[in-house]
């Protein structure tokens, strides 16, 4: 299991100009703007699960970390949020 970020389209306000998560994500081409939906969209294959995007989106709470089932690559939408590494830990080296 590993964790990835998931954007709730009903809470994301990217259509109003917010790009915070896109700016702060340390992985290139990981969160991008879905220009069809005008919502932030996570490329789960690039997400490192660092939680930074969820922190910067704390006002709108549009991003939740969910575990991914390794063999199937599917996001597991359980009852509980995934446990994440402390902010910055994943990039501490
Ligand atoms: S920071 Fe939150 S509200 Fe802003 S674009 Fe990202 S997911 Fe949407
Ligand atoms: S958890 Fe980290 S790597 Fe994944 S989308 Fe959010 S900021 Fe990017």
Structure report:
With 93 residues, the protein is an alpha+beta fold. It has a single domain (2-87), classed as Alpha-Beta Plaits. It is 11% helix and 25% strand. It has helices spanning 20-24, 52-56, and strands spanning 2-7, 31-34, 39-42, 63-69, 74-75. A three-stranded antiparallel sheet has the order 1-4-5. The mean pLDDT is 87. One iron/sulfur cluster (SF4) binds at residues 5, 25, 27, 30-31, 42, 47-53. The site of one iron/sulfur cluster has 13 residues, from helix 2.
Name its key features.
single chain, 93 residues, alpha+beta, Alpha-Beta Plaits, 25% strand, binds iron/sulfur cluster
Regions with little confidence, pLDDT below 50 for 5+ residues: none
Enter the CATH topology name: Alpha-Beta Plaits
Write out the distinct hetero groups bound to the structure.
iron/sulfur cluster
Instruction: State the helical fraction.
Output: 10-25%
Q: Order of strands across the biggest sheet? A: 1-4-5
CATH architecture: 2-Layer Sandwich
Residue share in β-strands:
15-25%
Oligomeric state as shown: single chain
CATH class: Alpha Beta
Major sheet description = 3 strands, antiparallel
Q: What is the SS-derived class?
A: alpha+beta
Question: How would you briefly describe this protein structure?
Answer:
By secondary structure, the protein is of the alpha+beta class. It has helices at residues 20-24, 52-56, and strands spanning 2-7, 31-34, 39-42, 63-69, 74-75.
């Amino acid at each position: 299991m590993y964790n990835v970020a998931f954007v709730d389209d009903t809470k994301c306000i990217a259509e109003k100009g917010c790009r915070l998560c896109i700016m702060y994500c340390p992985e290139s081409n990981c969160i991008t703007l879905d220009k069809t939906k005008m919502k932030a969209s996570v490329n789960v294959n690039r997400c490192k699960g660092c939680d930074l995007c969820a922190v910067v989106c704390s006002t709108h709470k549009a991003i939740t970390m969910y575990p991914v089932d390794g063999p199937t690559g599917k996001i597991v939408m359980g009852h509980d949020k995934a446990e994440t590494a402390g902010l910055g830990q994943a990039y501490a080296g």
